[in-house]
């Protein structure tokens, strides 16, 4: 079961322009495990290796913890729900500092 702050390889399928496509890492944002496995969707933010100098993107270094091969950026502005069936396998996880930065950006984006 996917948990918050884990990075999973996710099949985003065919995109509209500007959306993430194909297989790429995605950060699990929710829901918390208290919802249980009956909830068929997870909320994710895709990662990209393209540096765009946007304050909405949080850098994640390639480490044993993250499981990433390249420096990547969590695209906080592209959060979306995907069916759990789109999750291929867990790659790793982010640290507490990055998690807090992402939470603050998303709260600002959503007006919370």
SSE arrangement:
Layout (H helix, E strand, L loop, with lengths): L5 E6 L11 E8 L10 E8 L8 E4 L11 E4 L4 E4 L3 E7 L2 H15 L2
Antiparallel strand pairs: 1-2, 1-7, 2-3, 3-5, 3-6, 4-5
Structural account:
By secondary structure, the protein is mostly beta strands. Helices cover 13% and strands 37% of the residues. The chain has one helix at residues 96-110; strands at residues 6-11, 23-30, 41-48, 57-60, 72-75, 80-83, 87-93. Strands 1, 2, 3, 4, 5, 6 and 7 form a 7-stranded antiparallel beta sheet that branches. The termini are far apart.
- The rounded distance between the terminal residues' Cα atoms is 28 Å
> What do the pLDDT scores average to?
92
Specify Rg, calculated over alpha carbons.
13 Å
The best one-word shape is globular
Largest sheet: 7 strands, antiparallel
Low-confidence stretches: none
Percent strand: 35-45%
Query: How many runs of DSSP E, i.e. beta strands?
Result: 7
Which sequence of SSEs, written as H and E, runs from N to C? EEEEEEEH
What share of residues is helical?
10-25%
Which structural class matches the secondary elements?
A: mainly beta
Question: Number of helical segments?
Answer: 1
How would you concisely characterize the structure shown here?
The protein is mainly beta. The chain is 13% helix and 37% strand.
Protein traits:
single chain, mainly beta, seven-stranded antiparallel beta sheet, 7 strands, about 35% strand
